[in-house]
Hints:
- The complex is a heterodimer of chains A (320) and B (175).
- Chain A has 320 residues and is of the alpha+beta class.
- Helix content of chain A is 22%, strand content 32%.
- Chain A is built from 8 helices and 21 strands.
- In chain A, strand 14 (196-197) and strand 15 (200-201) form a beta hairpin.
- In chain A, helix 6 runs parallel beside helix 7 (244-252).
- With 175 residues, chain B is mainly alpha-helical.
- Chain B has one domain (2-174).
- Chain B is 83% helix and 0% strand.
- Chain B contains 6 helices and no strands.
- In chain B, helix 1 (2-50) runs antiparallel to helix 6 (127-174) and helix 3 (69-81) packs antiparallel against helix 4.
- Chain B is elongated, with a radius of gyration of 22 Å.
- At the A-B interface, helix 2 and strand 9 of A face helix 2 and helix 6 of B.
Amino acid sequence: MLHSYAFLPARLRQALAASPLRPESLQEIRLRAERPVFLLYDGHEHGITEGGALTANPGESLLCSRREIEETLEYVSGYSMYAFDEEMKQGFLTIPGGHRIGLAGKIVADRGQIQCIRHIAFLNIRFSHEICGCADALLPYLLEDNEVCHTLILSAPRCGKTTLLRDVIRQLSDGAPGRPGVTVGVVDERSELAGCYLGIPQNDLGMRTDVLDCCSKSEGMLMLLRSMSPHVIAVDELGSTQDGYAIESVFHCGCRLLATAHGSCVDDIRRRPLLRRMYEEQMFERYVVLGGGRPGQLWQIQNGRGEILFESGTAECFFE
Amino acid sequence: MWLYVKLAGILCILAASVLTGLELESRVKKRWLFLRGFTEALRFLEKETAYHRTPLGEALREAAAHSQDEVRKLLLCAAELIPLRTGTTFGEIWEEALADADLSSLLAKPELLAVQELSAALCNPDTVMQKTLLDKYTDRLAAMTREAERQYKEKGSLYRKLSTAAGIFLSLILI
């Protein structure tokens, strides 16, 4: 679907088909009613002309009409927007391939609860690019006596922590010669790890992975513990204090926890009450910090006592 | 001999007139039955989409399974076109299904227009508007169904009687 762009309106589809851009480098397409179309390609913003040429001049870019926004919504929802009510309340839809479409428009709320989004006039199509094997070099640091360490992956936004976590999950789930695969439970609150479409993960998370899609982390972790007997639980974007009780349950049940959080260094997490407490109690056994300006660039690995196991002075990128 | 020829001719005229009357009656009846079946299908679709959140293709297929004749054909055609026409709007898919069903000889213009406009109610990016439109079109088609039923009851037997009478009259003239 990524290569055919079948879910896009006809004009944009034709422009993309005619353009020389590489689909694997296309990160985002932004559609706004009566505004130019913007692409995030290779980390830079571009417009796109009717002939498919990338342009830095917004005035030359295709103008997206309101009708084309509606057309896109028809295609991505399989002509069934009503069937995606719950996802719309979260503000996004997931389409086959694990790609995510962020929605913005008029919010209809009732007693502070979002009921639906109407008059959707802004779409952010984020393309999912899983990179199998990007955790190859990292994985040995996350295992001790063939057991998975409680691990927290830290990075600033768009530095690849979700992509890395995805591959760690896959490798643990599938196993390798000399390392049996383990059951992994994933709480995919924002549908970014598995990218489930109609319940089926669009990204490869391994053969022994169970996914709770669009479920809050606090409830999801407890549900997995009660019903799916995971060996490892993986969550994305840890940090809310509501997750504290569930995380403690995970530790007390003997499960291993893999998580990500925003932060450019280990010191950053001490500003958040939950993560500070976890750091002081040495609950995590590994801290993996990504950074250095390029997605997937490993900066540092620490153990729970703050001892540095790996530090990079030069670029060591997992995504190449 | 001549008498036998006349008798045969009278029989043919009577048969033609009765059959014409029956044909006219059945057209009016078919129109009523189509509108009735279509309104019921629409109510079924409303339930499937609003409460069960069934994807449209599947909902159309389910509605077709509960319908008959032209209604079934129309809904099934639309359901089958959905996976085949990625990159086509639902309005275009619905138009194609309608063209395939060829309802122009069955329905009057306002009814045909209402069925055509239904695509905006069946597939709308605004879920609140979709429910409103579905309610509106269901009520409108229900009203058209009642009118078609009234016309069938008034005109159906009238066509039959008139055509039979015309057949008898012609026969008498020829005698």
